[in-house]
Amino acid sequence: MNEPTVLYIIRHGKTMFNTIGRTQGWSDTPLTKQGEEVIHYLGAGLKEIPFKEAYSSDSGRAMQTARIVLQEHNKGSEIPYATDSRIREWCFGSLDGGYDGELWGVVPRILAFKNYDDMMTNRISYKDLADAIVAADSADWAEPYEKIKERVWNGFEDIAHRREKDGGGNVMIVSHGLTISFLLSLIDSSLPMQIGLENGSVTKLIYENGQFTIDTVNDLHYIEDGRRS
Length: 229
Description:
Elements: E1 5-11, H1 16-20, H2 33-46, E2 51-56, H3 60-72, E3 81-83, H4 100-110, H5 116-121, H6 126-136, H7 145-165, E4 169-175, H8 177-187, E5 202-208, E6 211-219, H9 221-228
Parallel strand pairs: 1-4, 2-3, 2-4
Antiparallel strand pairs: 1-5, 5-6
């Protein structure tokens, strides 16, 4: 009999760009010393979870986070680990690497809102957001909505489907704030944007017969458990 298939989806640790308020997307910076410390606590809090396998995006900050968590795990050296480019963050094109104020300054204006708060109060869709980023991108690198949707859904669903076919069990996945938030919206379209997912937070999904169920979102208790251990 198969075990339940459970994805523990982690937002990567806090990076240099996160700390100084720059948009990362496909650009990358390493975890700060404080960011590493929090992920060590997270790893300690997850060390007893029997993971069958582990994945991260191919961004350096996600790989660094995954390595720290596995380093802290009781059987980390025995857990198969791979990267998957499909679970990367969104690409913000020419806005990658700029200050957050540039992205969240121009996008509301494109969508005819006064400012970021006005935009979020009106609960824009992820398609609206993606279309506005494409419109703002002067380099023509930003991904259109349908491409983001296809890669993010297929990335996570393929991981879950393979694990279910192989008997189920727990999977650790390190991904990115907007990507995780977007995945949640594909599972439950009634959810508001989860822009505020914390670095090191765990979002847990259960997968059965081709369907995801959301168990927990933005869970920080594993970090606190590790801090106390």
